[in-house]
């Protein structure tokens, strides 16, 4: 009777709570509900079992005697045994749920990482043919207009294309390197358009060691030329300058009619690559007089800026640490449920007039409660908040 009622009863409670309040979705709520439910349920089941045993089966006491407190110690001792059984069942359920959740998170993160990498590689692979196609179009025009300039353009293009091949596989490059490349590319554009296009560079020296996505300036310069007409009487003025932690590319609007629809590779490519690297956005401003694109300038290459989320090893280490915390708490709880009843028995047998077991029971109980609150999330939000604040301060330095 004891085995069936206490074992099956606690098992049913644990299964029901697993369905209604899974550990992975509401850890703190589940812990509180579990503690309250097992205390109430085990008290009721123990009183019922002892009543059936002593009153119904053995007829050792009447109902009035049973509820008068005569069997208080027996009930208290049996309740501790029942709580020990329940603690094992809940610990087993938690471990199984944690194991499933950890495996699921690792698989999801691996899929996210693979997807992000594939997307990033796809975006980078657009740059190579895109640049080559546009450069060959310029060269084709120069061959008819100015063969000597075409030869010079070909030599310069090989130098620039080398940079494209070197940088396109990088996530970020320094502003200094990107500016040097942009100036060389502007020289090519000057070769073709001469005084129809003017370039103004005004970037702060402090920004030179910061970072932008590679080939972003070249793609935006291409857009300026592609979507605007430029003549000697109405030159196209393109400015590249610093503004509030951004690198700005601005041109006066002289919109030309598009013969064919734009492929949209340039600007969308930059926006997507930035979205994979940082939470900061690329801003676009347009008025009747000018068109401006603001590229976020990143201070460093922090780990948080990586396109790869948490790795499998990091997830496993976190899960392993969490399991150790839970095992420590349940080990503490089981020790409490075993040792305190033993101390009570020793106390009653040796000196029933002096109930000294109350002091270790209360002291250890308070410590156990504090341990449980720490493990199951009470106060964790405050700790996590402080950790995030410290990390953000360190990243800003």
Annotate the secondary structure layout.
Blueprint: H1 2-20, H2 27-57, H3 63-70, H4 72-145, H5 147-167, E1 173-174, H6 175-193, E2 197-202, E3 211-212, H7 216-227, E4 236-242, E5 246-252, H8 265-277, E6 283-286, E7 290-296, H9 312-350, H10 358-375, H11 380-396
Parallel strand pairs: 2-4
Antiparallel strand pairs: 1-3, 4-5, 5-7, 6-7
Organism: Chryseobacterium hagamense
Domain Signal transduction histidine kinase internal region: 118-196
Keywords: Kinase, Membrane, Transferase, Transmembrane, Transmembrane helix
Using brief descriptors, characterize the structure shown.
single chain, 397 residues, Heat Shock Protein 90, five-stranded mixed β-sheet, two-stranded antiparallel ribbon, 68% helix, rod-shaped, kinase, phosphorelay sensor kinase activity
Task: Please explain how this structure is put together.
GO terms for molecular function: phosphorelay sensor kinase activity. This is Histidine kinase. One of its GO terms (cellular component) is membrane. The protein has about 400 residues and is of the alpha+beta class. The protein has a domain at about 110-305: Heat Shock Protein 90, CATH 3.30.565. The chain has eleven helices and seven strands. A five-stranded mixed sheet has the order 2-4-5-7-6, covered by helices on one side. Strand 4 (about 235-240) and strand 5 (about 245-250) form a beta hairpin. Helix 2 (about 25-55) packs antiparallel against helix 4. It is rod-shaped, with a radius of gyration of 36 Å. Mean pLDDT is about 75; it is low at about 300-310 and about 380.
């Amino acid at each position: 009777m004891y085995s069936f009622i206490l074992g099956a009863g606690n098992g049913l409670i644990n299964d029901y709570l697993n369905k209604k309040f899974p550990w992975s979705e509401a850890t703190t709520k589940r812990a509180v509900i579990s503690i309250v439910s097992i205390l109430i349920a085990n008290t009721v089941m123990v009183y019922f079992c002892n009543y059936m045993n002593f009153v119904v089966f053995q007829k050792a006491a009447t109902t009035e005697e049973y509820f008068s407190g005569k069997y208080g110690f027996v009930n208290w001792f049996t309740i501790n045994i029942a709580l020990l059984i329940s603690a094992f069942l809940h610990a087993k359920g938690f471990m199984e749920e944690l194991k499933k959740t950890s495996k699921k998170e690792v698989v999801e993160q691996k899929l996210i990482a693979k997807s992000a990498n594939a997307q990033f590689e796809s975006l980078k692979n657009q740059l190579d043919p895109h640049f080559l196609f546009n450069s060959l179009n310029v060269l084709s025009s120069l061959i008819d207009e100015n063969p000597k300039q075409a030869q010079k353009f070909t030599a310069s293009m090989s130098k620039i294309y080398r940079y494209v091949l070197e940088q396109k596989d990088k996530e970020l490059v320094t502003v200094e390197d990107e500016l040097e490349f942009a100036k060389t590319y502007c020289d090519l554009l000057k070769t073709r358009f001469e005084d129809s296009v003017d370039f103004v560079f005004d970037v702060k020296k402090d920004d030179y060691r910061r970072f932008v996505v590679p080939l972003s300036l070249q793609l935006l310069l291409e857009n300026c030329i592609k979507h605007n007409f430029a003549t000697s009487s109405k030159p196209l003025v393109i400015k590249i300058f610093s503004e509030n932690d951004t690198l700005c590319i601005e041109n006066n609007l002289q919109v030309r009619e598009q013969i064919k629809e734009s492929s949209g590779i340039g600007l969308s490519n930059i926006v997507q690559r930035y979205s994979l690297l940082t939470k900061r956005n690329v801003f676009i401003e347009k008025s009747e007089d000018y068109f401006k694109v603001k590229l976020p300038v990143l201070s460093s290459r922090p780990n948080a800026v990586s396109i790869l989320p948490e790795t499998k090893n990091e997830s496993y280490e976190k899960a392993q640490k969490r399991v150790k915390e839970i095992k420590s708490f349940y080990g503490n709880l089981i020790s409490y449920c075993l040792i305190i009843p033993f101390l009570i028995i020793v106390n009653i047998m040796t000196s029933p007039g002096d109930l000294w077991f109350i002091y270790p029971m209360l002291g250890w109980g308070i410590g156990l409660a504090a341990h449980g609150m720490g493990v199951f999330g009470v106060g964790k939000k405050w700790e996590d908040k402080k950790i995030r604040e410290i990390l953000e301060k360190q990243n800003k330095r």
